[in-house]
Backbone:
């Protein structure tokens, strides 16, 4: 109990898809904010920072969600923020999606969000508050003929709508829910040779940086009157072309 007692005033953030890219940036940003962090992904390596607990697992499997939240509560005593950052993006013409594509994308983007968010909210209700942040995609609001992505729209669009539902369901109980809707960000997901074509999809003519998304999450984290917000960080994509 002593470690729990000592940590009980330190806030705790859970970050999915935390091993690289935006997820790794979020772990660092929450540590700088003074939070302890529970970081999960399939491949995440142990951390030498006592304030970071890493949990390996496939977020599409509900058992991973159970392990992540239980480990966070056991180690740090609470859960204050959950960032659903893990996401799978497969762009294909609609009729070319396979059953495996469907299972993989819905597994990570929907099932992966659903169970861990339920468990986090249960804990937040006990504590009297918390914050949910979902990372979606600008393609949800702004379909693009150059990037056929019905599976992204179906899953991340569902997440965007769920963000508003959660915000309203828990508005009087201290739990906020927000989303960040990125354009295309320079991450390991996008090979360098695709960057010029991807940059051209954005009205500002360039890709975003991981820090742009991390900064947006940090804004939401520190904005107690903001809930149900879909914050577009997309170089103008959602506004038009």
Residues:
């Amino acid at each position: 109990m002593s470690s729990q007692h000592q940590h009980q005033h330190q806030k705790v953030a859970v970050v999915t898809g935390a091993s690289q890219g935006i997820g790794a940036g979020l772990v660092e940003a929450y540590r700088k904010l003074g939070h302890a962090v529970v970081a999960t992904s399939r491949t995440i390596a142990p951390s030498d920072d006592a304030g970071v607990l890493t949990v390996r697992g496939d977020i599409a499997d509900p058992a991973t969600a159970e392990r992540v939240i239980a480990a966070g509560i056991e180690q740090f005593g609470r859960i204050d923020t959950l960032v659903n950052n893990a996401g799978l993006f497969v762009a294909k013409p609609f009729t070319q999606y396979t059953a495996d594509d469907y299972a993989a994308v819905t597994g990570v983007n929907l099932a992966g969000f659903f169970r861990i968010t339920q468990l986090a909210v249960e804990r937040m209700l006990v504590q009297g508050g918390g914050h949910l942040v979902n990372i979606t995609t600008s393609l949800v609001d702004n379909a693009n003929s150059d990037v056929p992505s019905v599976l992204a729209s179906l899953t991340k669009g569902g997440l965007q709508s769920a963000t508003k539902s959660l915000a309203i369901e828990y508005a009087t109980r201290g739990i906020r829910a927000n989303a960040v809707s990125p354009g295309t960000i320079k991450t390991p997901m996008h090979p360098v040779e695709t960057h010029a074509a991807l940059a051209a999809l954005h009205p500002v003519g360039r890709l975003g940086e991981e820090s742009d998304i991390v900064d947006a999450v940090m804004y939401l984290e520190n904005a107690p009157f903001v809930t149900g917000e879909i914050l577009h960080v997309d170089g103008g994509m959602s506004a038009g072309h």
Remarks:
- The mean pLDDT is 94.
- Residues 99-127 form the longest helix (29 residues).
